[in-house]
Amino acid sequence: MSPRPSLLIAATLGFVGFVTSFGAHIVAVNLPFYAERVGVGLAMIGFLIAAYDLAEIVAKPVFGALADRHGMKRTMQLGIVVFIAASLLYLIIDSRWLLLVRFLQGAGAAALSAVSLAMVGVYFHDQRGRAFGVYNALKGAGYVVSPLVGGLIVARRSFSGIFVVSAAVGVLALFLSLALPPTPKATTEAGVDDDDDFSLQTFLSVFREPQLLPWYAATVVNMFYIGILFGFLPVRAHALGFTPTRSGLLMSAVSLAYLLVQPLAGAWADRSSPERTIRIGLLLSGLAVMAVPFERGPVLVATVLVAGLSVGTVWTNTDTLISTLARQGRLGSTMGAAGSFKELGDMVGPILIGVVSQAFGLAVGFLACGVVGLCALAVLTRSGGRRSAA
Q1: What is the pLDDT of residue 42?
Q2: In CATH, which superfamily holds the domain spanning 205-385?
Q3: What distance in Å separates the CA atoms of residue 247 and residue 31, rounded to the nearest whole number?
Q4: Between 20 and 30 A from 28 (CA), which of 42, 109, 191, 373?
Q5: pLDDT, average across residues 329-352
Q6: Considering only 45-54, 161-170, 171-180, 274-283, which range has the smallest mean pLDDT?
Q7: Nearest CA-CA partner of 122 in 76, 83, 55, 58
């Protein structure tokens, strides 16, 4: 394999990652139509959204560990096949079993997402930051495209049509993945017998690596901020009297800032220090989030754009740094663990922020989350960001 592989490889892996973001949100944004047709309430909508995230939290580190032992490309393709099968399953079973379909979709997405992310680190030693930037930009495009595509399908066809499209996207990703170069066999650390290496203690060890814990924490906090921007910024816009169109334009601008900055942030990480970039990104995100409830007009737009640019920068740079710090032979496990922390922040963070806002008001919710980020920044600074040679 060439020491400087084409960024087309990163783009292919990014499209594989696109499958999970597209599959998650094309269903989630249309669940109110499903609930009305089937006759379930808001609580079930919440469970249906959480089922996908819960499956990813549980399955990502498992599939990451399996990929280290049995081959990354094969494990990723297995995840795509599971996702395709789960999507098509909805067409042949009672629609009231959607909860099972969502959990199985999430399990397949866990494998293809965690392993495709780890494969970026395997293929790219030089230009790793830029490769992660390309990957994350393409994967994140699923969050932008899926609401529009899903809305058109449900309006013109039926709710089941979105599962056909999800499966078709998975088939395309599977086809493209066939052209990827074979990944080298993982080598374990000196003195460790590969045949006996897959134990519970070894599996859990990636969650306790001291050089990784601060950056896992940064990942969780960054997901808090993403939860705020895409979950609570519309609430702030509504309080200011924004029309749905104006609110949508604001969210689109934040989404584009979040996506487009990632290749640039990755290229910067290749030339600079990811640790420093992460700290700067968390600082700007925290300050921007704290300022949101006190601003309006063009100043508010500028503030949330800064927040979008910052969380996108932190996302790519944490991926780059964590992949660099992973121990030899544990890249799949490590990126799987990082993925679980992302899903944890994505699932739990917005809930906690909502509780604070419900109890003390939206302004306190924004302020509290900004403080959480700044506290995490203090911990990262104190840790010194030591990059252990794994």
Answers
A1: 61
A2: MFS general substrate transporter like domains (1.20.1250.20)
A3: 21
A4: 373
A5: 72
A6: 45-54
A7: 76
More reliable by pLDDT, 158 or 174:
174
For residues 113 and 56, the answer to whether their CB atoms sit within 8 Å is yes
Q: What's the pLDDT at 349? A: 62
Q: What is the DSSP letter of 242?
A: -
Please check the confidence at residue 339 and state whether its pLDDT lies above 70. yes
**Amino acid making up residue 238:** H
3 state SS of 387: coil
Which two structure tokens, joined as six digits, stand for 250?
A: 């604001």
Cβ(124)–Cβ(180) below 8 Å: no
Confirm if 131 and 123 have CB atoms less than 8 A apart: yes
Gap between the Cα atoms of 58 and 307, Å rounded: 29
* Overall average pLDDT of the 29-42 stretch: 73
Residue 154 CA to residue 160 CA, distance in Å, equals: 8
CATH of domain 1-186: 1.20.1250.20
Quote the percentage of the chain above a pLDDT of 70: 85
Question: 1-186 and 205-385: same fold?
Answer: yes
Q: How far apart are CA 280 and CA 252, in angstroms?
A: 24
Token digits of residue 135: 């990957």
φ, ψ of residue 180 to 5 degrees: the values are -70, 145
The domains of the chain are located at 1-186, 205-385
| Residue 175: predicted pLDDT | 95
* Bigger pLDDT: 281 vs 191: 281
